[in-house]
Amino acid sequence: MSDPTNLPLTANHWGTYRVRSEEGQAVEMLGFEHDPDPSPIGSGILDVQTGPTRITEPMIRESWLESGPGSNNEKRGQEPFIAVPWETANRLIADDITRISRDYGNASIYAGCYGWASAGRFHHAPSQLKRFLNTVGGYTNSFGTYSFAAAEAMVPHILGSFRDFIATTTSWESIEGNCDLFVAFGGVPVKNGQIESGAVGAHVQKKGLRAAHAAGTHFINIGPLRSDMMDELGAEWLAPRPGTDPAILMALAHTLITENLHDEAFLSRYTIGFERFAAYVMGESDGIVKDADWAASIAELSADTITDLARRMAAQRTMISVAWSLTRQDHGEQAYWAAITLAAMLGQIGTAGGGIGFGYSAENSIGNHFTPLVAGSLLQGDKPIDNFIPVARITEMLENPGGAFQFNGQDLTYPDTRMVWWAGGNPFHHHQDLNRMLRAWQKPETIITNEWCWTAMARHSDIVLPATTSLERNDLAMTQRDPYIIAMSKVSEAPGDARDDYDIFRGIAKQMGVEDTFTEGRDEADWLRWIYDVTRQQAAVELPTLKQLRKDGFFFYPPPEQPTAMLREFVADPVANALKTPSGKIEIFSETVDSFGYDDCPGHAVWREPVEWLGNAEKYPLHLISNQPKDKLHSQLDHGAVSRKGKLKGREPVTLHPEDAAARGINEGDIIRVFNDRGACLGVVIISDSIRQGVMQMSTGAWYDPIEPGGLCKHGNPNVLTIDKGTSRLGQGPIAHSCLVDVERFEGEPPEVTAFVPPVIKRRS
Ligand SMILES: Nc1nc2c(c(=O)[nH]1)N[C@H]1C(S)=C(S)[C@@H](COP(=O)(O)OP(=O)(O)OC[C@H]3O[C@@H](n4cnc5c(=O)[nH]c(N)nc54)[C@H](O)[C@@H]3O)O[C@H]1N2
Ligand SMILES: Nc1nc2c(c(=O)[nH]1)N[C@H]1C(S)=C(S)[C@@H](COP(=O)(O)OP(=O)(O)OC[C@H]3O[C@@H](n4cnc5c(=O)[nH]c(N)nc54)[C@H](O)[C@@H]3O)O[C@H]1N2
Ligand SMILES: [Mo]
């Protein structure tokens, strides 16, 4: 067998792989030799590069093609598609952009287009779409992510930035040997560390956890799932009611204040507004004392556990880790603000292994040791218009053209959307309350999707443009938060008429007479050179030439000598290294946020009851946690072998507590119907006492597969159940994790899963 390190490399959000190809197609993906813990997710693509789920020709929904834009929109997702040549698709799209732009203005084109697409700085589908639309008058964009929208809006008011601090998270090297107590709200589920947006050279999350454990760090997993922490860490498991973390954090603060364990010197030197928060915690401002008894009744943790935890945190070097999931909840701003406040009270911010970290639970980079890289990317061009919506307000935008809404201190209005275009994302995966979204989906006259496989998003479009996968193109994988730069090689030939997103837009741009503006005369190779040059110019060390990089396959961008400790420089000199907040300090009270006058997000961290939680679970008694899937990234590769292997009876597994199962006569392996007023889906039961009683867990990612429009999802997409509401007027983030449901055994013949059966495709003679 030949040396695998001679094989070409490819990269994706779940890792870097050596790829063996046969007859123009990748047949084997081997973990990168520098990766101690490669993820199996990668090879999930091998069996679906071609076959029935692959889209190989441009497709147009029958009524749209025959009767024009806006025809029979209610049939989206059910009607046959007609395969057409590229020239036809390009001409019809060009005409429709021209019509909408002329009659309604470009704000009526929504291309916020949220989604993870694929790794690679050039072939990044959403950037390609946005660049193209900027050459033809612009579009309405989106702001923020589904990952942590509430934090992206909130944390800059407290720390001056959010992104800066996920790029400078205290590294595992700093935790190892320094951190005594690692308190993880939302745990550190190693399934998630398989992922990094943009690239992973070496997976380090497990290694970091093990090294810390071996050096004596004690872990506490606070959350509904024991499996959110590796067994071998011997973690304590506290399982409060989901969504009650802000109340627990308030009570921890209360204990510190009453026992005089808070660090007044730190608070006065590095923060402002502590008195306002303390008055709230002590009940002086609203008459409610946020003590351990108060929190115990909200969270269903014992008061002693809370006071004891506060004392332990004050007595030892403590890292507070807050999972990103805490932001994807009603009032998702509050857990982060409260956690930062508590960390400031402990006075350990900026120390080795202590302070706070955002999302050790989430990605490989959080805790990884790297020098932040300023990587070049495809330019999106000047924006002719700057309309936007907060990313998770898509349904509301479609429902309410011209409607007013508030966001982070701004009064804004929704555009009158006529066209929706997605490239590299899947709202039928990521958005909440899909049945409501489906109703709103009838509003636009034209929906276009660039995709490589028949996702629900593609099926519910009018025009589907067949894209390539990252295996089918050359690119550069680089991200700010991973030390490896990977030269990605084309290892498979694209099937049929599939084109990469650049060529897709180049064709439409040509039709519209703006090809040169779109391409600037560059082809793929020119753009890659340009992107790499920009990166080289800004790099801290000399990067190899592109030719050399291609030859070597990768470059390891050297991390700093000292392990990273978040906010160390600020703590060393808070004047010279002032934060980008109005005061230059950590804002425990924010005049800015207070001035917005939002009762759902006032001037300091507060406890607000979530819209749905176990404290108001009268009608639907179970709290649904729809966390990230272990065998795939979101909906990507759900149709591939790795994800399919993880299904039970072809459907999404659901974990139930033994008591909740017994109370409903449900047994291991039963097909169950999960339901609430918003919708229902099927799943297959795993019974386990490693979940908190009253909580059920069902990962995201199963391709949406309704029995009829708005009906039961046969496959198990939990977003038919989740609620579509903003976290608050400040962040307007999605709140998937605040969701109540009930379950029952599904009786009778279960309907066949058809998620992976392509739509009917017709051909014109
Ligand atoms: N209930 C619930 N819902 C959630 C969450 C949750 O915790 N619970 N989490 C949320 C979070 S954090 C996120 S980030 C979102 C993720 O939501 P998304 O990012 O929208 O999900 P993906 O499945 O990654 O969608 C990416 C799509 O891009 C396609 N694609 C990949 N490469 C290319 C390419 O090169 N060109 C083109 N044209 N297409 C490409 C893929 O096939 C896939 O369909 O989901 C959110 N939804
Ligand atoms: N394998 C894999 N990894 C992924 C992804 C994927 O799709 N697949 N997606 C990536 C993306 S886009 C993102 S944004 C990150 C997300 O990273 P996270 O947001 O951290 O991921 P989740 O799995 O949604 O949540 C982590 C855990 O938080 C716990 N939790 C939920 N609600 C609460 C609560 O109210 N309180 C407490 N204390 N705990 C709670 C749940 O038990 C859950 O397992 O993951 C990334 N990693
Ligand atoms: Mo995310």
Model description:
- With 765 residues, the protein is an alpha/beta fold.
- The strands form eight sheets. A seven-stranded mixed sheet has the order 6-17-18-19-4-5-30. It has a six-stranded mixed sheet with strand order 25-27-26-29-24-28.
- The chain folds into three domains: 59-144 and 392-474 and 490-526, Rossmann fold; 154-371 and 563-596, Dimethylsulfoxide Reductase, domain 2, CATH 3.40.228; 614-745, Barwin-like endoglucanases (Beta Barrel).
- Helix 2 packs across helix 18 (501-511).
- The structure holds ligand MGD (2 copies) and molybdenum atom.
- One ligand MGD binds next to helix 15 and strand 18.
CATH architecture of the largest domain: 3-Layer(aba) Sandwich
How much strand content do the residues show? 15-25%
* SS-based class: alpha/beta
Side by side, the strands of the main sheet go: 6-17-18-19-4-5-30
* Number of discrete domains: 3
pLDDT under 50 segments (min length 5)? none
Number of helices: 25
According to CATH, what is the topology of the largest domain? Dimethylsulfoxide Reductase, domain 2
What's the end-to-end separation, in Å?
A: 50 Å
**Distinct bound molecules:** ligand MGD, molybdenum atom
What are the SSEs and their pairings?
Blueprint: E1 9-12, E2 15-22, E3 25-31, E4 59-61, H1 62-67, E5 81-83, H2 86-103, E6 109-110, H3 125-134, E7 141-143, H4 149-159, H5 163-166, H6 172-175, E8 181-185, H7 205-214, E9 218-222, E10 236-238, H8 245-258, H9 264-270, E11 271-272, H10 274-281, H11 292-299, H12 303-315, E12 318-322, H13 332-346, E13 355-358, E14 388-390, H14 394-399, E15 404-407, E16 410-413, E17 419-423, H15 427-430, H16 434-440, E18 446-451, H17 456-459, E19 463-466, E20 475-477, E21 484-488, H18 501-511, H19 515-519, H20 524-538, H21 546-552, E22 554-556, H22 568-572, E23 586-587, H23 591-596, E24 622-625, H24 641-645, E25 653-656, H25 658-663, E26 671-676, E27 679-687, E28 695-697, E29 740-745, E30 761-763
Helix pairs in contact: 2-18, 3-18, 4-13, 8-11, 8-12, 8-13, 11-12
The protein binds ligand MGD (2 copies) and molybdenum atom (MO).
